[in-house]
Each structure stands twice: as structure tokens, then as C-alpha cells.
Input
Amino acid sequence: MEPKSWRHLCSAGCAGLLLLAGVASGQESATQQASTPAGAGQLPANLSKKLAEQSEQLDVMRSQIDAYAAQLDAMKRKLVDQEADYRALRRAVGLDVLDRERAGNIKEAGPGASALPMPADDSLAFDGQSEVKPVGQAPASAQDQRPPAVAPISDQPGVLTPRGKFVLEPSYQFGYSSVDRVNLIGYTVIPAILIGLIDARQVRNTTQTATLAVRYGLTNRWELELRAPYVYANSETTSREIFTGTAQDKVFTTSGHGIGDVEATVRYQFNDGGADSAYYVGWLRFKSRTGKDPFEVVTDCVTRCVQNATGTGLPLQQPVGSGFYSLQPGLTWLLPSDPVVIFGNLSYLHNFPRRGVSRTVLLAGKEYLGKVSVGDVVDASIGVGLALNDKASISFGYDQSFIGITRQNNRTVPGSAKTVLGTFLIGGAYRLSDRRTLNFTLGVGATRDTPDVNMTVRLPTTY
Output
């Protein structure tokens, strides 16, 4: 067969196949059109059912979300109410006072301290919009920068009176001291034999002082104080009369009472301390000589007692004042270090000299003494305070004073020497109410020249 015939045969076959494919496609299209229902273009029924079920589930989930949101709002309101009750309970049981005494409450005791896990600061209340402040950040109010309160063991308080407030503080102080003295007047031939006189004395002094102090806060940093004491002093001297051969002791008793030396003090807080940062309070005290002094009472001695052994050389009435004007600057510092507060005092007392001084001598009238200068006093103390619970606190400390010599007409008075006084101190405080606190201080002498016991009870009340 020729090639041309093969080409015609292949062309005819391809045309037949194309014709058959077109006829089959037309028949399939007609069949689909005949089988398609009238609602062509709609989704199948099973798919519509699934969509409806999912829509119902979404509605249920939306309802649950709304219910959860309502419960969350109710929980927020309940939390706010509980925090309000918590702050009310803190004020009722006095936890804020405990924080203030431990330097732990930011709002009451100063910046940077936290004695309890949840400080009673109104700015930390959750209301859904308030920003929580970091612990230890100082508030803006100047009143919040006051140093922490501790059980006082000295006359200088650490916490100043708030502005516009005043504190009325009655106090009672009891002091007791005893001194044994032996004077050898003569000379010794050999160590076992004394030619002369032996004067042995035992002196017991008791002093009771009732004081009324008033403190007023000029500002949050300035404070004024006025103290008016009433003193009752009693002295008993047991000795044997010299120039006599008696073997019996004789007791010489004297007493005196009256208004003592009135004092005025001004205090100023220099800085705003906080946790591990000390507070510094400077103060200046002026002491008058309103009390009856040693130069105004009658002395049992005919002439100068160091030159004449007659008479006892003791006053017939106990003085209640020092007889000298005094000015005392000082510095008090407090360092909060949870759970204790470390504090201390440093001061210098200057006694102004008196000129033209005379004393009254029994049966001899006035005796001119001239210029008398009493030694100045340097005082330093240190202690720690600790809160025991929400009402009670306790303090321990030590105080030491250095007293200079006394001079008369620029000459050292015979028998006068520099003296060192050391006292161990323990103090306690108990909060009776929001305005009233009972303070107790006990001092025990650590050196021979220090009074044996010094006890003080204070009851400051804030108005």
C-alpha cells in the first residue's frame, strides 16, 4: 500500500474518534441536566445540618464566656471588699503600730522597710485600675518620713511629734545611790600605826522626781519640749563622831523637796532615712536653775570644813537644783535593720560658771566663795530596740558620761576629780491605746560613782 493511502486512512480514523468523543460528552451533559433537581446551586442537607450544629455550639460557648466574665467581676469586687476588711482588722489589732515600731510599715515608719508581707498602705488596694507600687518606695508625704519608734531608755525620744499635735508626758523617776567613804587624817609611823583621825561614813541618797513634759510638733521635722520637774530628795549619812571615843554610829538625815530645774528642748530631723539608712535628729536643750541650789541651803559647818573638822560639813536641807545654767547640744540617730532598730545619742553639756557665789554656814552667816565652775559633761549611749508583738517592745543599751573637775576661782576644788559614770539600761514599752503608751526604763550602775538604781516610768499621751 502506498504511503498516501496510509495517511488518508489515519486521518479518517482520528476524525471518527473525535466524533465519537463529542457524542459521548453530549449524552453525559444531557444526563446530568436531567438528573439535577430544580434547586441547583444549594448545599447538601448533611452539610447544612453540621453548620447549624456548630452555630449552636458557638452560641453555647459565648454564653459560657459571658458567665465566666460575670464571675470574674464578682471575684474582683469580693477581693476589694476583703482587702478593705483586712486593712480595718490591721487598724483594730494595731499591726500598723507594730510596723511603725519595727520600721516595717512604709506609710507609717518611713521608706524602704517592710516588717510584714502585706504593708497596710492604702495605695496598694486593688481596684482594677490602680498601679501596684514596688515595695520599699517612699511615699510623697513628708509625714511618712518619721523615724521608727522604739522603747525609750533616755530622755531624748527618737520619733518627733507630728505637725499640729502635742504630747503630754507625765513621768516618775526613782534614784538610789550609796557611797562608803573612809578618810584618814594624820600620818603613819609604820604601815600598821596611824597617828591622827579616821572618819568613816556611809552615805545613802534617795531621789524621787515627778516630771510633766509637753512636746509640740511645729512641723513634721521641728519639735519643741518643755519639762517641769518636782523633786523630793533624802540623804542619810551614817558615821562616827571624830574627836570622840564612841563606838556607836550616828545617823545624820536631811531631806528637801520643791520645783527642780525647768528645761526647754528643740529638736530637728535632718534627713529621711529608711531600711539600712539612719535617721538623724539634732537637739538643743537649755536648763534653768529654778530649783533651790546647794548654795542656798544651810551647811552644817562653822568655817571651811576642809580646814576645820567641827560640824558634819553636810547641808541641813537637800537641794533640788544644780545651781547652774546649762546648754546641751546633742545628736540622736536611729538605724532600722529589721527586726531591730539600732539607736544612739551623743551630747555635750556645758555648765555656765557663776561669779560672786556665797553659801550659808550654820552659826557663821555667809561665806564668800567667788567664782565657781562645774565640770562639763560628755555623754554617749547606744542601744537596740526590738518589737515583741503588736503591743510590746523592749530596748537594751549602755550610757557613759565623762564629768570634768570643779574649779573655784580658777583653782581645782580639793577632792574634785574627773569622774566616769556608766549605766546599763533596759527599757520596755506597752501600747495601751492608739494615743497612749506606757514606758518603763531601768538603769543599773556599772561604775562605783554611778547611782546604783535609776528607774523611770512614763505615760505619753498624744492629742
Summary: The longest strand covers residues 166-190. The chain has two domains: 74-127, 152-462. The helical segments are 3-35, 45-93, 95-101, 106-109. Residues 204 and 303 are 25 Å apart (CA to CA).
